[in-house]
Every structure is written in structure tokens, then in C-alpha cells.
Amino acid sequence: MLRDPSVKYRPFPPINLPDRQWPSRTITKPPRWLSTDMRDGNQALIDPMDAEKKTRFFDLICRVGIKEIEVGFPSAGATEFDFISGLVRDGRIPDDVTVQVLTQARRDLIETSFESLRGAKTGIVHVYNAVSPAWRKIVFGMTRDEIKGIAVDAAKLLRDNAAARPETDWHFQYSPETFSTAEVDFSVEVCAAVMEVLQPTADKPIIFNLPATVECATPNIYADQIEYFCRNIPNRDAVVVSLHTHNDRGTGVAAAELGMMAGADRVEGCLLGNGERTGNCDLVTVAMNLYTQGVDPGLDFSDIDEIVKTVEYCTNIPVHPRTPYAGDLVFTAFSGSHQDAIKKGFAAQEAKNDQLWEVPYLPIDPADLGRSYEAVIRVNSQSGKGGVAWVLEQDKGLKLPKRMQADFSRHVQRLADESSRELNAADIWRAFVKAYRLEVPQRFTLGAYDETRAPNGDRIFAGAIEIDGQQHSVSGRGNGLISSVVAAMKEGFGIDLDIADYAEHAIGHGSGAQAAAYVECRTPDGRTLWGVGIDEDVATASVRAILSAASAAE
Known about the structure:
Distance between the termini: 67 Å
Oligomer: single chain
Structural class: alpha/beta
Number of strands: 14
Helix content: 25-40%
Radius of gyration: 34 Å
């Protein structure tokens, strides 16, 4: 890298728009959406999609609810042409979906594009030519007037080809390609000249696609360009302003959002951001960003995992685990402090009387995307007691008392450090069973027992407890079942426990529910011991919890 990059690169000049309005606006409704997965996305693949994958992708886009789909570049070759014409011929285009085809501004290519949609109920033909200084000077060697002449001639071909095929409801889209690096007043001039030819109306507007063909500036500059264009294009009510951002600087989504604030009507992009170089604007992210602001995007991503699966299959490109809303890890917390906040957030959410989503670190309810809560908190060496407790609760239904969470967390931390990997639910359960002596056979095994009440109100526990294969009859007296079991353990085995805390809860519902009991004990030498008991009967669960703690006391 250069120590002084200014000798090689120049900052992008700002747009002179001192009274810009877009910064004070908010997005209150969704744009029109266009998927270019099958055109811009497909042409960026190492191995372009075959007909089967294109068909599968087309069906996915329709299920999601996108109503405008750029299905390809029919003049690129027979494969593209045959697929597009096949969609029309086989009646695969839903009545509420309009397909769009892209073509360069040449007579033969434009005619081929119209022919590919022969018989379609409706269709958009999208023509483009580059207008920015670098392309004019380096690629074409043309003047401004010559570049504008290409656009005007293409518009005439659109008009004449549509008139020759009146059975289709034709719509037109023109792109001043490289808009984001062109002089914005020149882009307005070229588009106005195209309008002079096509004579759009409010009932049948022209679409002007204003692409950030290569993202070369911050998103606010793109927004200024869009607002300038919207202010200065004639007959604005006869124009649909469409955005087509790329992600060269990593801000394709932000540019699209600011462009909408600046007055654009439509957003073009790809599901999960596929596309040339660093990709197109990710339609999933833009749509779900709207959703989290209370705006219905009009699209359905409620089965995000199926969408990811289809996109990965059709593009042969894996979706990164950190991809917003769709990645495997986007709703997952490993950090202990994050896990604790999320756990508390879910608890507060359950206690609320309204649906307003307020869970720390989760900007959206994973369930809205078809995700479960099981993977929200995962455990490794960075995790804390809240995360460990969450996994146990989700996997086994156990709701550990807060101090017990801290106790068990130490066992899990030791295991995570030793294994140097993420711990799954099975790992954590095995650690729990080992830590609180739930394995069978246990040190102390409970046999048959009775609980009776003495005339003075005391409870009497009398039962059989097996130790190392030998059965012992024990009894004890206390003011309740737990204290009577503690007395029996002291009298029968010399194990002295003082109960510091006790908790219990049901696991599950109905006739198949079980009970979990937790007991915190102190020993004469100052140790703290925890015991756990699980049984169909809550009283038996509490006895088992005492025996669990007693096993640790020896």
C-alpha cells in the first residue's frame, strides 16, 4: 500500500445540494422490489445456473412475493433465450408477476429481447448504456452528445418494437449505466431525452434505473445524486426511480436505504446479496430492516432457512454465517454478558402483556424468520452462567436457581477449557449429570419410603436407602419432608447437612409432566453443596435432591 494514496486516488466530489431534504425523512412504506438474481446474480457465478436451477430460483422469488423479476439477458445466447421464452410458452409466469429482460442499446439485441417475451401478458424491456466520463473517454471515445444519441436511438427501437407487438403490455426501463460516477446533470439530460421519445405518463411511467454500477463514494453522496435526479427530471409523476446498488465499499444496503429516503420508488437487488464483484444490494437485508422498523416489506421471509438452502444450491456459493438475518450465527451469543442479557430479555418478554419486542442483542424475534430459540445461546469458554442455564432450560426444561447457575457454570467452564471447542446441549447435560450425581446407579439410591405425620405435627420419613449395593432402613423426624430426610441421613449415615435454599418446578405439562427439585446445603466445615432430584412425584424429587447433595458430602 502507498504511504500517500492521494497520488493515485482522488476523493469523490460531493454533490452541490445545500438544501437536501432526505436526511430528515424516514421510510414509512416499502418500495417496489425487483430481483435481478437471475440476471446480475447469475452472470456473476463461476458456473451459471442451468435451466433446472433457474426454474427453482424463479419459483423461490415468486414465493417470496417479489412481483418484478429480471429473468436474464436473452441476447447473450441460446441458453438464456430458450429459458426466458420457455417461461412464457409454458405459462410459468404468475399473473401478478412481471418479468424483465436486459439488453444493450443495439438494434439486433433489442429485437431479440422483445422476441424472447413473445406472447407474454406483460413485460419490461430494460436497455442501458454507460454515461460516465471514464467510459466516454476510455471505453467508447465518444462525446456527451454521442452518448446521448445512443440512448435516444435505443428509445426509438423500444417504442417501435413494442408497437409491432401490441398483444403484450410493454413497459420500458432505461439505465444510464455508471450513474453513480457520472455527472448527475448529464444523467438527467440523457433520461429527459429518452422521455421525449417514449412519452411516458403517470398511468404508464418509464422506469429509470440509477445504478451505483461501481460503488465509489459514501452512501450519502448516492442519496444526494438520487434527490437531485428526482428534483430535476421532468414530469416526475411519469417516472419510477429505481435503485441498483453494488457493494464495492460494503454499503450497498445503506445506499439503497438512503436512496429511498431521497425519493426513489423501487429497489433492485439479489436475495442474500449475490452479484458482480462484492455483490448487489441484499434484498433480504433491506426488507427485514424495514420490518424491524414496523414497516411491512410485502415480502415473506418466514422460512429463511429454506431460502438460504435454495440460494446456496442454485448459486453454489455458501451464505456466510454472519450474513444479516440469514446466517447461522446471527442470532447466536457466546459471550457470557450477552447471554445473561438475552436470557433476562426472554423472561421479561414472556411476562409482558403486549407483543412489543424488547430483547437485548436481538433486533428481531428469530421466530419471525422461522428460527427456533435453541441456537440463540451457545456455549464455549467465553460463556457465562446465564448461557449455560438457558441451554439446560431449552433442552431439558430445567430452571436452575440463580446461585446454582453460578455453581454449575464452573463445571462447564472447566469442560470448555479442557475441550477447546463449543459445547452442545448433550455435552452440557452430561456435565450436569456428573456434577450433581444423577447417573444410575447413584451413591445413594432411594427405595420405598413413607412419610407420616406425628401427633405433634412433625413429619416422619421412614424408608430404604441403598449404598453400594447394600440396603439400609433409615428414619428421621422434622417439621417437613425435607428436614425429616436430612435428619434420617444424619442419624443413619452421619451426614450432617443444613438446608440453605430449596426450589422446585414442573417440567412439561399434563399427565406426562415431571418435577425438578433443587436443594442448596451447608456442611459443618462451611462447604456449599447442591443436589438435584427429578421424578414424576414432586415429593420424591425433593428426597432425591437431598440424596444428590449427600453424595457430595462424603
